[in-house]
């Protein structure tokens, strides 16, 4: 059974930092792109950051560029999201996901809540 388990969310003051982790089990994703997504109450899910299987290519939403960093450790089957200079508008449930063999984000974690207070 494939599982993606996020951790590291919580409550932080504006300007603070959090590091999210997403550990995969049940299969390896070392040859698959992975990403972080978020959904705030009343809003659609949005892509936060993605990373290619070999870490050569990354993508960031404009709203997080320069503040968030995505990286992965294929030996640990884990992807991370380092979030610095957090803002109240970063408050959301953050999900990690992995692509399948045809490039669809078909594997999802259960989400972790990030709340940034002003």
Task: Give structural attributes.
118 residues; mainly beta; four-stranded antiparallel β-sheet; 11 strands
Question: Can you give me a brief rundown of this structure?
Answer:
The chain has no helices and 11 strands.
Beta-strand residue percentage: over 45%
Return the structural class.
mainly beta
Radius of gyration equals 13 Å
Series of secondary-structure elements, N-terminal to C-terminal: EEEEEEEEEEE
Shape: globular
Largest sheet: 7 strands, mixed
Distance between the termini: 40 Å
Total strands: the figure is 11
Number of helices: 0
Spans of at least 5 consecutive residues whose pLDDT stays below 50 are none
What is the mean pLDDT?
A: 97
Q: Classify the helix fraction into a percent range.
A: under 10%
Any overview of this molecule?
- The chain is mostly beta strands.
- The protein is 0% helix and 53% strand.
- Strands 2, 4, 5, 6, 9, 10 and 11 form a seven-stranded mixed beta sheet that branches.
- A hairpin with a 4-residue loop joins strand 7 and strand 8.
- It is globular.
- It starts with a strand and ends with a strand.
- The mean pLDDT is 97.
Q: SSE layout and pairings?
A:
Blueprint: E1 3-7, E2 10-13, E3 18-25, E4 34-39, E5 46-51, E6 58-60, E7 68-73, E8 78-83, E9 92-99, E10 105-108, E11 112-117
Parallel strand pairs: 2-11
Antiparallel strand pairs: 1-3, 3-8, 4-5, 4-9, 5-6, 7-8, 9-10, 9-11
């Amino acid at each position: 059974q494939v599982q993606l388990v996020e951790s590291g969310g919580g409550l932080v003051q504006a300007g603070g930092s959090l590091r999210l982790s997403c550990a995969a089990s049940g299969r390896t994703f070392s040859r698959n792109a992975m990403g972080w997504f978020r959904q705030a109450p009343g809003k659609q899910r949005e892509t936060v950051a993605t990373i290619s299987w070999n870490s050569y290519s990354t993508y960031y939403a404009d709203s997080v560029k320069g503040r968030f960093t995505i990286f992965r450790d294929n030996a640990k089957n884990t992807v991370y999201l380092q979030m610095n200079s957090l803002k109240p508008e970063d408050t959301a449930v953050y999900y990690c996901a992995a692509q399948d063999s045809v490039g669809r984000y078909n594997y999802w974690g259960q989400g972790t809540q990030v709340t940034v207070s002003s």
